[in-house]
Amino acid sequence: MSTHKSGPKKVVLAYSGGLDTSIILKWLQTEYDCEVVTFTADLGQGEELEPARKKAELLGINPDNIYIEDVREEFVRDFVFPMFRANAVYEGLYLLGTAIARPLISKRLVEIAAEVGADAVAHGATGKGNDQVRFELAAYALNPDIRVIAPWRIWDLSSRTKLIDFAEKNQIPIATDKRGEAPFSVDANLLHTSSEGKVLEDPAVEAPDYVYQRTVHPEDAPDTPELIEVTFERGDAVAINGQAMSPATILTRLNELGGKHGIGRLDLVEGRFVGMKSRGIYETPGGTLLLEAHRGIESITLDRGAAHLKDELMPKYAEMIYNGFWFSPEREMLQAAIDASQTHVTGTVRLKLYKGLASCIGRWSDHSLYSEEHVTFEDDAGAYDQKDAAGFIQLQALRLKLLAARDRRLK
Known about the structure:
The protein is built from twelve helices and 14 strands. It is α/β, with parallel strands linked by helices. Among the domains are: 147 residues, HUPs (Rossmann fold), CATH 3.40.50.620; 138 residues, Argininosuccinate synthetase, chain A, domain 2 (Alpha-Beta Complex). The protein has a five-stranded parallel sheet, sandwiched between helices. A five-stranded antiparallel sheet has the order 10-9-8-13-14. A four-stranded antiparallel sheet has the order 6-7-12-11, with no helix packed on it. The longest helix is centred in the last third of the chain and has 23 residues. The model has no long low-confidence stretch (mean pLDDT 95).
């Protein structure tokens, strides 16, 4: 029976089917004596999800209370693509693959809770990381009355031994490799893989190659470069090599191409929102190609003023996503400005993929601002009067001259 008098009656749990969330499922049942509904999202993590259904049924969940949904298209269309319109990177390097998935999971948790009449949602994020913040800020933004349960911050199952003991006591199946300490933890979705902890905790030690799951080692990548073309409409990728594809299909194909050439590896020590630094190994092959291609098409279609302002706003926008403020008025305000900038970001980019690098080597668009007539070293037939530059320079130099004259006078 519940040890919490005011425990929830029905909880929607973000459920992966793994050991930790299976323990959480059983803990919710035993701690609160409540009904549990499970939600498992196919975000393109590359794992078979039917075992999660069987595991939930084995743990006593009514089949009608098991939600398994393919949300890959929504994930890329409504979360990844808007973020890439901003060229968002956190701390100059991280493409936010984990952070951008959390608001979608929370959105579905809250929606399912409303559908089934649940009074709480639950997640398996620990009390040390960013994900607890992301899950909960999103949930409260969408339903201020929802109750969020975070077992890792409540229970006394503080060690792997206690978790295993609880699992055995409650007949929760334990994979053989789960009885010992896992060498590192992994989060994956269609945008990236993230590996942290254990063998990766010392930032002075190079990550072993077996940590990487989606990319070949750049040194082992093909010795021949591969050229691909990515076509954009209003800032979103719509085709690869002339073949129109859905958002999730495009990212899947870019992942294959980038992974084959060892592109998108990142070893990062980052500043978590909760205050500590952590070391993560990220693989974002498709996202790395997408960012390079998007910046390539923006270079000929986006006005300098808009482009530079976007680059100034981007770190703040990226930080909002990293810190869990996707469903905030400030993120939506910046998104409106970013989307307005993409009206003419339409055209095609040619990328060269070679041994860990993606390089933009060509770009063209009917919306291009590039004028060969103006920049040519040949006779420009009066398109640009070079004498105009003299007055422009003198006006720009005026304040610098005044500063220099003052400094000389005071010496």
